[in-house]
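Example A, followed by Example B.
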Amino acid sequence: MSARIRSVNAGDPEPNRANRVRVTGFGKRPVDHAELRPPGPKRGGLGSGLVGDFIGNTGHHGGDRQAVYAFAREELDAWERRLDRALPDGAFAENLTTEGLDVDAARPGDQWAVGDQVMLEVTGPRIPCRTFSHRMGVRGWMRTFSEVGRTGAYLAVVAGGTVRPADAIRVVAEASHDVGLPETFRAFMGDPAAVRRVLEAGFLPPDEAEWLHRRVAPSG
């Protein structure tokens, strides 16, 4: 199967009891198309890269480096088997449910052409949060999700435009390093060896690199 968009998903505001913001757009539902554009900074920007997609906690989600979230349908199918429950497209709050693409084999810096207009760049893994855990309703969910470590990909919008289900996805540029999303995720979860590899690869923006360095730096 060639790589394609299976579903484009957007969320409306709804109550959230999982954190202090009290409102979330986690409940993504399929739409027939969406316009993508760079949303600007995380704080003070437009939030999501999808026009019409709501993000509640803009201190931790959205912005240019988390403009779009992609997750593979094949991974949702694997979670269905693990959890013995149905997981429709958008169940993990992904904006793009893909098919025929190993999203987790991507590296930060890879670029994808989607359809005829859109260009997206992989920026990093998804880090699980309290809202994700609350919505899944699975005891120990963040640990379980993290142990599997196939998180999907956050994407920046390099060139905007309209995306629709069945749009083809093509990897048109590959990162110059060999650090993949699972290893980047382990770094952000505190694995010292992964932190060293990520920092040596040099693909993080300065603020993220500094945060990661401090996470494993000796105290005192």
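Example B, a separate protein, is given below in the same form.
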Amino acid sequence: MVTLKIADDVPGLALAIVELHGVKVGPSCEELREQCDEAVRVVTEHGWPNMEVRKKEVRQLLRTGGYKPSGRNKPAQEYLLRSATKHNGLPVINNAVDLLNCISLQSGIPISLVALNRIGSNITFRFGNPGESYVFNAGGQELDVKGLLCLCMDSDGESVPVGSPVKDSMTAKLLDSDHHIMACFYASQSAISYDELHRWALQLGKGALQFCGADSFEVTSFPDGGW
């Protein structure tokens, strides 16, 4: 089971962690693609719940450590909305990523997706340090994570950033062989209730059972018990 540590104080931070076991990464089925298309239709017509507030508060959360969430460094769910609006659809990648993108688009919340079977289950959340970065695509482009809230793996006792609300690293991104994975919702307590965030996390977990062949899942929230 995943072990979580929040190393830095991030006022107003809300996290929902969905740990998935026995996932079978592969192509998305027709029903999942239909759900993605319906999510695009609804969101492009009606927006997210409390759209402007949610967008503002997620960006403000990312500014807490000094990061500037704008331009190419904007939160991931804003890229999804832009892609959905521009192309009238979401990219087709694999069942796990497509499910995550669908829920991120619907909720207006950035979500990391990482392979625990490769990065380990000891996860720390902290701000990126000066000089820290990671490669986030196959072209070798790097994200400077100074001041950014990062999801970090343990490497010989050191926490190494491998994910964030902006982009996840190539180190942690899913491969077809991955089976033990984790999704992390990054939210602001002022923009979403505990119950709503928990519902989105449950939806992802249940979707993984249905569309990704997962054996089981657990949801962990921070702060535990609500805000």
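On Example B: The beta strands are 3-6, 13-21, 111-115, 122-127, 133-135, 142-144, 149-155, 158-163, 181-188, 216-222.
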